[in-house]
Queue: 4 jobs
Job 1
Amino acid sequence: MVSLSGGNPAIQPLGGLIELGHAKGYRFALETQGSVARRWFADLDLLVLSPKPPSSGMETDWGLLQDCRNAAQGTDTILKVVVFDEADYAYAREVAKRHHDLPMYLQPGNHTPPPPDDDKAVVDQNGIDERMRWLVDRVTADKWFEARVLPQLHVMLWGNKRGV
């Protein structure tokens, strides 16, 4: 399985790569914020739509997110929202409500991202663990049992190192 992520990979012309990779037996997953729909989404094995929550400062264009879903007809598609605070949690609930037929994953955000030129910046793992417990407790208190809460594994394994 080849995972395509980082920034917004949907802005890249990846259709040819996916076609070539499939011919050689590879499978492809793509994670995107859901702001650019591509016809080749239908050729993916998994599409992860991860719209940006309020803490990002970005606004969600719900029509574009739906366009991504429409482009991915026949492709397994899931939702993922990174949650930093109550506003992000409420946003995740809204995303899930609008797309109730898709699996929803929640992750506690890394509140210690590195400066762009420093991949050795220390991660506050205790703080992330506290956010994880808060998120699990919040989902449990709401009886939102359809949501799956998972850590950001890349942060746990590699900290703030870029390019992994």
Job 2
Amino acid sequence: MKDIINTSKAPLAIGPYVQGVNLGEMVITSGQLPINPETNTMPENVDAQTLQSLNNALEILKSAGLTAKNIVKTTVFVKDLNDFPVVNEKYGEFFESHEAPFPARSCVEVARLPMDAKVEIEVIANR
């Protein structure tokens, strides 16, 4: 059984997809752009974009009753791999601030992201 996750605390889907799906024991988010859901704006710098993307994914998980501690896998898409040291630092700070173990991770440089974002992050969490 699949439940669709929708929360106003994360950006609305901008296409034919959902914010996330709850599969019972597993929750999977769509890639989260660094859009502030309250202002509908995106920070300029990659460090703020990284944290906003992670916080957006976390809000989706929270709506399914999970926390950052439940994240078991992330995929990080970056527009410029030269930004990876900053992304990596903010990523680490995010999990440390939530006292969550680091999950498995993939990081991929892409030619372009929607809305010209510098980073997009998707997560998989387990109950």
Job 3
Amino acid sequence: MYLTIAETAEYLSLPESYIEALVHDNKIRAVHDGEQYLINREQFNQHLEQMEKAKKQLAEYLSEPIPEDPDVKDED
């Protein structure tokens, strides 16, 4: 499915100006139909999956209890 720059910005929760800059820098593949750029949404699936995986890993890490520190002062 193809999206416009505005729709892509909303889909990725990023500013339109940033998406437009990525298109002009050829960091995002897009097709120009004479009036506007059209961006294939499927190219972001792997990135979004990796972001969700990273968020889950971070949440798991932050929910781990802090281990008790050994008492290092008793080195007599």
Job 4
Amino acid sequence: MSTLSSTDAAAFGKVGVLFGGRSAERDISIMSGTGVLNALKSHGIDAHPFDPGTQSLAELEAARFDRVFIALHGRYGEDGSLQGALELLGIAYTGSGVMASSIAMDKITTKKIWLAQGLPTPRYATIEPGVTDLDKVASELGLPLIVKPPLEGSTIGITKVTKAEDLKAAVDVATGFDKVVLAEEFVTGRELTVTVLGQGENARALPIVEIVAPEGNYDYNNKYFTDDTKYHCPATLDAAITAEIERIAVEAYNAIGCEGWARVDVLLRESDNRPFLLEVNTSPGMTGHSLVPMAARAIGMSYEDLCVEILRSARLKIGQARG
């Protein structure tokens, strides 16, 4: 870990680390935020915890933060709502702005933009419970297929459907989180993820991480609470395939206007080594099992230095900083 001088650390001003929140990913956010807070403090930065799940926007304004590191996951933190409040309060923040955050949070809207840009993503259908013909969805997408709530993360509410008669039950699970449901073609292949840092022409991909979960099931438990899942970084891939995955990841990131940092999830189809984009996480996990720090380590960047680099990119996207 490189060490900031006291002058450089002071230049960040008073920093808030926002974590916790009210989403289904609250517990993971607390783990991420605690790690980020400790990392920033280790550099001498004047960092303080703030939980929007238990503290009000009035308290956020009263804290007089010069900038904040968003370590919130899911609704009310990763979906543009908090970003809008920070713009109104004039507090610089990490990650993407209001529009990019809200688009990335909605997997259906994200897919529409990617397809319009000619980027590869699995075929899909939007399901309105009680309205959509489920047999038709199963017939058009084929089986197995994946059913998921389009506004959730951390594999919450996701079901793999192998029989048409199980589709309704999977939809019922997903509607416990969202009113509209995403059904997606199941792509058999390798699970990969790409961290992207920066903005626009300066956006760059970090080394690709491959995820090898027990029985191919990268669920909530295998993602955060087990050591059985294996990770390979950099992923063992042909140079041309690596370059193609990094290219489409950066293009996917830029297509929805991401900036600062994000993680792009990709499937590499087994039959022909063709990559397919799944989703973008604009406030990725920063826990001990998280993939962004893993990718950073592969280029010699410590967890602490990664947190500082992300914090350094904090800014307002619409207005001007307070004062």
